[in-house]
Design goal:
The chain has about 170 residues and is of the alpha+beta class. Helix content is about 35%, strand content about 25%. The chain contains five helices and seven strands. The protein has a seven-stranded mixed beta sheet, sandwiched between helices. Strand 4, helix 3 and strand 5 form a beta-alpha-beta unit. The chain is globular.
Length: about 170
């Protein structure tokens, strides 16, 4: 994993142009202009404000191919971070999501965080399975209002989390 740079627009455009990748996020590809003017600048801004956190480009070790990104984002609580990922379809089902999520959870606790959270649509069973395999535990179902809801929104969003004590106990086991 590495930090994104201003030269990574094409990587993000390629990732966000796949409707299946975006299915549980926006339901549609992200326009290039939005990536250039909002998404990538936002990623770079987090690095400046939170040097140890942010969204990191992920590449395969074997050939250097871009597979997607993993993020460790600040929250309103300075001791809690939000973990997430977005992977190209070619990387699905290979264990990358679980491996990358575990790595960022370890990084978070190694840097003094007390809690790691993640969320997704309740109907996104694949992401929920990744969260469980990465050591996160189900916390709750909640409902948000969306002006243009995606199919499945009516079932709510789910939150998963792990705290430092639980993470440490798992490492000792």
């Amino acid at each position: 994993m590495r930090r994104f740079t201003a030269d990574d627009v094409e990587l993000l455009v390629g990732l966000d142009s796949d409707p299946e990748v975006m299915r549980f996020l926006t339901g549609q590809p992200t326009p290039r202009e939005e990536i250039e003017n909002v998404v990538l600048p936002g990623i770079l801004k987090v690095y400046a404000a939170h040097p140890r956190l942010g969204t990191f480009a992920a590449h395969q070790k074997s050939d250097g191919a871009f597979i997607g990104w993993f993020g460790l984002q600040p929250t309103a609580d300075a001791k809690t971070v939000d973990v997430g990922y977005r992977l190209n379809r070619t990387a699905w089902g290979k264990g990358y999501a679980t491996e990358g999520t575990r790595a960022l959870i370890d990084k978070a606790f190694g840097e003094g965080m007390e809690r790691v959270v993640a969320d997704t649509m309740a109907v996104n069973h694949r992401s929920r399975a990744v969260m469980r395999r990465a050591g996160l535990r189900f916390v709750r179902v909640y409902h948000e209002h969306f002006d243009d809801p995606l199919p499945g929104t009516e079932f709510g969003e789910v939150e998963y989390a792990i705290d430092r004590r639980t993470w440490e106990a798992g490492r000792r086991a």
